[in-house]
Amino acid sequence: MNPSIESVALRDVFGQTLLDLAERIPELVVLDADVAGSTKTGAFGQAHPDRFFNVGVAEANMVDIGAGLATCGLRPVVSTFALFLTLKGADQIRNTICYNRLPVVLAGGYGGLSDSYDGASHQAITDLAVMRAMPEMTVLVPADGTEVAPALEWALQHDGPTYIRLSRNPSPILFADQPAMAVGQIRRMREGSDLTIGVCGIPTSMAIEASERLAADGIEVDLLEIPCLKPLDTGAIVESVSRTGRILTVEEHNIIGGLGGAVAEALGREMPVKMGFVGVEDCFTESGDYNELLEKYGISAHAIVAKAKELANS
Fold this sequence. Notes:
Elements: E1 7-9, H1 10-22, E2 28-32, H2 36-39, H3 42-47, E3 52-54, H4 59-71, E4 75-81, H5 82-88, H6 90-98, E5 105-109, H7 127-132, E6 138-140, H8 145-157, E7 162-165, E8 170-172, E9 187-190, E10 195-199, H9 204-216, E11 221-225, E12 228-230, H10 234-244, E13 246-254, H11 259-270, E14 274-280, H12 290-296, H13 301-312
Parallel strand pairs: 2-3, 2-4, 4-5, 5-7, 6-7, 10-11, 10-13, 13-14
Antiparallel strand pairs: 1-8, 6-12, 9-11
Helix pairs in contact: 1-8, 4-6, 9-13
């Protein structure tokens, strides 16, 4: 499968999907922490000012307000930068939303390194670890624009809390001609018997490129896109590694606690195999151009190929 040349930012699709769902889901309300221009919730606010709440730079309060609206029968989407949502709002997410299993959608914008020029203070490399650890939380990581709408629509119908990770920068459209993303299911993009690669989010296009390079070198990859980190499709992962004997996880996140952690936990219980990890190597990142930062911190097709070869030959 080759990504098309068309690209779109996940945040743009998110903003448009909110507008598209507004009439169909009259209970939908949106909350933002004074960054509506960045998260793209602003268009919803202009179209439906009575259903939009800019709470200011008060992320923890925003989470509690969203929880309160959910108890009144509304379907809140709580939106801001992923780092601030998941850390400044963590206490409220845990004790108010998750403990009461409230149907609140938490939309974490600017995930990973995509807030590149604002540096480590704004880049989210721990959000997936934090949200995975929250009881009752579903964790979704769309890989391209086509996966955002089904993720958001599913979350608004789900009887519990959902975290959706979004990104700032345009990224390739990968699945325009494929079935829609299904929550809790893995998408197999390539079949191979030498090595499993599991990937989530924006690096998916890099994993596709890497798998093609590896095939040219005689290494056939079983390539799995994992858009749902929780609940994890453990069965599909076990089936793959039962044939390949090893797995490399790829994510735009700290290698601790995100996709790699989820897969390691699952395989540790079901079928321990050799593993490798592509992601931020447990360090703080810095300011700079987005693509240059990804390359510097080891999130690239080149890095995937190198680690895949090392793992396949181990």
